[in-house]
Amino acid sequence: MESIEAFLKEHKIDEVECLVPDMAGIARGKILPAAKFVQGMRNNGLRIPEGVFVQTVNGHYPDNEDAVISPAVQDVYLLPDPSTIRVVPWYSDPTAQVICDAFFLDGGPVDISARHLLRRILSLYEEKSWQPIIAPELEFFLVDVNTDPDYPLEPPIGRSGRRETSRQAFGVDAVNEFDPLFEDVYDYCEAQNLDVDTLTHESGAAQMEMNFNHGDPLLLADQAFLFKRTVREAGLRHSVYATFMAKPMQDEPGSSMHIHQSLLSSETGKNLFSQKNGKDTKLFHQHIAGLQKHLPAMMPLLAPNVNSYRRLIPDSDAPINTHWAYDNRTVGLRVPHSDASGRRVENRLAGADANPYLAIAASLACGYLGMTQKLKPRSPVEGSAYRLAHTLPRTLYDALSRFNGTRAIKPILGEKFIDAVTIVKETELLAYQKVISSWEREHLLLNV
Predict the structure, then answer these.
(1) Cα-flanking dihedrals φ and ψ of residue 307, to 5°?
(2) Can you list the positions of beta strands (E) in 22-109?
(3) Exposed/middle/buried for residue 348 (C-beta within 10 Å: 0-12, 13-18, 19+)
(4) What is the C-alpha separation between 306 and 397, in angstroms, rounded?
(5) CB under 8 Å, gap of 24 or more: what pairs does 187-194 form?
(6) Given this model, what pLDDT does residue 241 score?
(7) Are 255 and 246 in contact (CB under 8 A)?
(8) Best exposed site among 38, 142, 382, 412 by fewest CB in 10 Å?
């Protein structure tokens, strides 16, 4: 509390944004004058309805929400995490943002919150003296401002005055078409201590990727959460939309959130996935085996929206199964070439639309199950994994069925959390089913 107050004074902060990531990874919360924020922090006055954690992506609440929250939709109180306080760099008035954890009035954590779930998984690793290390890669598209959702998206016009129409993967000049926008992104990230690394052009038209340097999973989840908000804000300031939607444009690849994960000994700091001679350890293969076996059941956390499954199709820079291989981008689990200290596996299943807290928690949970159950992986794949069976769920309906029907994940995630995800996603699916698409009007209206 003292460090937060000192920060507010040092930066002459007028207002504070209290942020809570909801199920979809949307920033919920409230904005207060700095003095009111301090007062509320001192007496548990920073409160928000518990229902925010089961709010759907379209802003509704499930009819059966009282299955996982109080029928009274009681208040929970927000406890700001001092390690997350930052100045918001795009406001003219000095404004701070801080990510908050949510607690019930009796002091117990809100166990269906995304940030709590990641802490829960990390505590399991801590009990084993294991220190997981994460490095996310986030892809996104830049698109023209689109005020009518019935119209398809288009790439924006860059400095040349033209739209990008061809594939420009790794094109440096293609990135520089939007150089002023990315200058703002880098400036905003530096001001917020977001440790972004490489910027590259991906395979889609005006599709970009930014990578983060590796580090603590909770720290990196916080950074990814803030980064998505930052990129969208920078885009708006240049009259461009930045979207992390998994598959925003027909005939273009989707956007992913690749999660590189490795494991250190908390006692020695050594990479537990590699032997001294550089060969894989048995623990590494067990970790991969856990990802292979359990990730398909975790897909509502990695591919959380109806649109997410449009990305997971063959020959589209996205996986269709959980095979693994060395330096092979057709598999779901890629092991990049590295030295012993950098041995890691890259989980390529998660979409850019996933809540980073939940995607990282799910990925680490699967690896943990593999190591504690001493599972054995299948042999690594040679050649394209697209020739092999499509074993991932094809729709959110299928994903939710597996999510609820897999016993092994219930103790590690908690049945209440699984129920919360399920009722939120079923409510979103019901809303989606009521929408008639342009494809249906075009092909069915006069033909059937």
Answers:
(1) -70, -20
(2) 27-33, 47-49, 75-80, 86-87, 95-103
(3) buried
(4) 9
(5) 187/89, 188/89, 188/90, 188/230, 188/233, 188/234, 189/227, 189/230, 191/86, 191/87, 191/89, 192/86, 192/87, 192/88, 192/89, 192/226, 192/230, 193/86, 194/223, 194/226, 194/227, 194/230
(6) 97
(7) yes
(8) 382
Q: Identify whether the C-beta of residue 236 lies closer than 8 Å to the C-beta of residue 246.
A: no
For residue 207, the one-letter residue type is Q
Q: Determine the pLDDT at residue 73.
A: 86
Dist CA 256 CA 302 (whole Å) = 10
- Confidence at 132, pLDDT banded by 50, 70, 90: very high
CA angle in degrees (0–180, nearest 5) for 194-197-202: 115
Q: What mean pLDDT do residues 334-339 have?
A: 94
Start-to-end CA distance of the chain, whole Å, equals: 65
pTM, full prediction: 0.96
Q: Any idea what the Cα angle at residue 67 is, between residues 353 and 427, rounded to 5°?
A: 40
Q: In terms of C-beta density within 10 A (0-12 exposed, 13-18 middle, 19 or more buried), how is residue 267 classed?
A: exposed
Tens-digit pLDDT profile for residues 375-396? 999 999 999 999 999 999 999 9
- 106 touches 181 (CB < 8 A): no
Contact 246, 353 (CB under 8 A): yes
Q: Which two tokens stand for residue 282?
A: 């048995």
10 Å CB burial of residue 49 (0-12, 13-18, 19+) is middle
Per the structure block, which two tokens stand in for 298? Answer: 């975790």
Tokens of 284: 């590494």
Helix (H) or strand (E) holding 362: helix 356-372
Tokens of 352: 């850019």
In this structure, the number of other CB atoms found within 10 A of the CB of residue 29 comes to 20
Residue 414's identity, in one-letter code, is: G
Residues in a beta bridge with 210? 138, 199
Assess contact for 413 and 117: CB atoms under 8 A: yes
